[in-house]
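Researcher: Go.
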Amino acid sequence: MNKYIFPFVALLAIAAACTKEETKVDVSNLEGIEYNHNAPVFKASVGEGSKAVLDPADGNKVKWDGTEHLSVWNGTQTADYITVDTGASANFTTTDDFASAASYVALYPYDGSAEFSAGSVTTTLPAAQTATAAGFDPAAHIAVASSSSTSLSFHNAVAYVKFTVPAGMDDLTSVSFKGNSSEKVAGDCSVNTSTYALTATGSETATLSGTFTEGTTYYLAVAPQAYASGYTVTITRTSGTYEMVSKATNITFERSKARDIGELWDGSYEVTGSAIATPVTATKTVGPRINSNAALKEYTYSYSGALSAGTVAIKRSYASTNVASATVPADGWYHLFYNETTDTFKVYDQDLSVNFGSTIDGMNSIAGYIEDSNVTLYDYNNDEASSVVVTVGSGFTGTYSNGSYINNTSWEFYLDDFFFRSQALYSNIIISKTKNTGDSDPATVVISGLNPARKYDLRISGGRGGGSLAARATKVEVGGLTQTYRQGLDGTGSKPATSIEFRVNNVASFENLVPNASGEIIVTIVGIDTTSACEAHLGCMFISRVAE
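Model: Structure:
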């Protein structure tokens, strides 16, 4: 038996009796049941996996449960037939006017809008389906029968995506399927009554929603076909949304069979390669901590630790192929991160941080704006970083501090997987100038003690408790490159609504900067006259050396 066939769909192989004579159906069990005695009574078998009711006591075989409705055509009339039996075969009767005929076509489930013409039934494969533990939504389980007698053997017309909910995924709300080449997978469809081939013309997505149980298998009905560029399964949880992507070409989902994609991906990544002795799980460091908009959630996966010279890669835990890779040049300590949203993979061999305006555990701090004040930086392992020094130059005019926000330690913001505490954002050195008189004069910050032969990434931010996003803007220039960030956060309680909004609006980010011959990177800060204000705020800075 093909391994993708439902374990409970035993393909009972009950062939329809195709005889010119009317099959005699035993109606003795219909005594007392109201039906049209002039209409034919049909005996329907579940045939080739045609029903979604399971009987665990009988090997999980598929059976009628006694409540099913069928659409039946006799060439000129359509009737609604309902069963009053249970089991692998059952009698179906109707109260409609319906005449005997030389041949019949039947559709499960009943669809009052369905039509039969020229050897094809048109119906709907629901794009929105209801999760059924260890089974599938009966409303999506389309099956047809064609017979020259009153014995009907149904043949399943759909394919199935089979998956299991892993432990720890008790917040799953829906699973969606789509083809990567915009194939139609559900909605309006037609079924050939001779070959049972189903063709969808409606929706590019099919979604299974409802209540899911960890450790349980579910099935999502889709149109059987070859998916030219593979498919994507979207996993939606209350904690986030992410995708399992199969990019292999011409992946075929066969009629009446299930393609098992295994356990749903839990969103984790693995770090692998010759540079690391044993693959490790990459930690999710950016997520929906302050994000109320599921569509904007951003995830970054990181690893920090000792690596050996060699190759290093990151891959989705369910996949065999890497999403990104790099070379580790020598034994040492490294910081790796992969950003799903921007598809960025970075490898650093040194991370340094500095906070301007207050002392914060874990960050190097410069207290105050006095010209020529400086600090020697230490990395995250508290090792002196080759005497790298940050010096506040001329041009700053004061400090800004809003204690009501500085003390809110629960607020956390991210750029890539670099962690911005609220204290670092709201405690600033500033340039303050009268508005409507033009931009401020530039102020400088000098980072010295760098290696002129190496490249560095720089992230800079500053915030202001309260105030609109548009009111205050800081222009940052480094090595001829210019970016602008805002001080106002425009969010609930004066914090941005999402980490992504913070990254876009409140941070200047520069990559692959090369120090000058003296080992310096000079940062120029200017307050932009927005007509609402003219202020520049510098709160914190991250300096990362790119591994080469």
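Model: The radius of gyration is 33 Å.
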